[in-house]
Amino acid sequence: MLFSIWFSSALVKVNFTDVARSNPVNLNSMSYFEAVVRLGGVAKAADEMQVSVSAVSQQLRQLEQQLGVSLFHREKRRLALTIDGERLFQTTTTAFESIRDVRNAIMRQRESFHLSVRVSPSFGDCWLAPRLADFIRHNPRWEIRVDATPNFSDFATEVVDLDLRYGDGSWAGLHSSCVVNDLILPMCSPGYLAELRAISQDPREQLHQARLIDSAKAYFRWNTWLPRHGVAPSKPGFPYRFDRSSMSMRLAIEGAGVALESTTIALDALLSGQLVPLSPCFEAIEFPAYWMVCPHRHVSRRSVRLFTEWVAETGQEHTARARRFLTDLGFRFCLDPRPHLLPGA
């Protein structure tokens, strides 16, 4: 049934205060009334509110009974606002429009997230950054700020939601959960491996003669790895030492020496052939290396939870891929869950 609505240009003040005091305002009926006038008909209002036409008509009658006034002139199949009806509509449509705006803003905010992440530099550059594009494609409403720095977050003074940090998981007073396992092994460029094999076919002798690239802040360094595997370096100390694993990896790619590095940082280079494992006679050491760290109160934040779940799931896929790659080359694996207990680490 089609209704047409007529609006009077005159604005007459109607006082509903006394009525409202004795009868609480029926917001449900008013929402039906506002929809009928705004949309221009009872049928359209019923469609928007997903109810029957008779339900809308009943709400209109109840509202008029409650207010004690007529809101419409009913003329056959036409409805026209009375002066009281027009005044009520001017008020209700403004109020409900404001409510709709706030509701929509809340819905948009619920669907979007603001996340501030601090991350270990090499992990951020070599692992997180290449994978963020996939996360953003599936979560286009997120706003993410990533700060790659060796400095751990001071959650008491800095606005940081979580820290993705290389370590052993022991951060006093904070929540920590492992998100990525590391696989550690010696690796170098194919060209440099050919040079070492020209010297000897024994991998231990190759390492004895090799230029060793040291990652100064790694848990597994040459000074603990070499004695563990019965290898003595030809010279004390190391000619190349870097505080970033990404720099050690880059130097190894350029053929400058052998790096004791992780597949977390170097898997893409290994898969592309830029780097090769020195020898499967040395097992790959696996340990929980990268952690999500934050105050316990941050764990309940939906953005922190969803992002951490994505990092952990992606990390598991990455580690599984690295294990398959090394298994195909004949590597064995040694699980070392507490690398900080190694001598000199």
From TrEMBL:
Coiled coil: none
Record-level GO BP terms: DNA-templated transcription
MF term (GO), any: sequence-specific DNA binding
Domain of life: Bacteria
UniProt-listed SUPFAM superfamilies: Periplasmic binding protein-like II (SSF53850), Winged helix' DNA-binding domain (SSF46785)
Record-annotated HTH lysR-type domain positions: 25-82
Keywords: DNA-binding, Transcription, Transcription regulation
Transcription regulation as UniProt keyword: yes
Organism: Aureimonas phyllosphaerae
Protein name, entry field: DNA-binding transcriptional LysR family regulator
Classification lineage: Bacteria, Pseudomonadati, Pseudomonadota, Alphaproteobacteria, Hyphomicrobiales
Entry keyword annotation includes Transcription: yes
Entry's family note: Belongs to the LysR transcriptional regulatory family.
Record-linked Pfam families: HTH_1, LysR_substrate
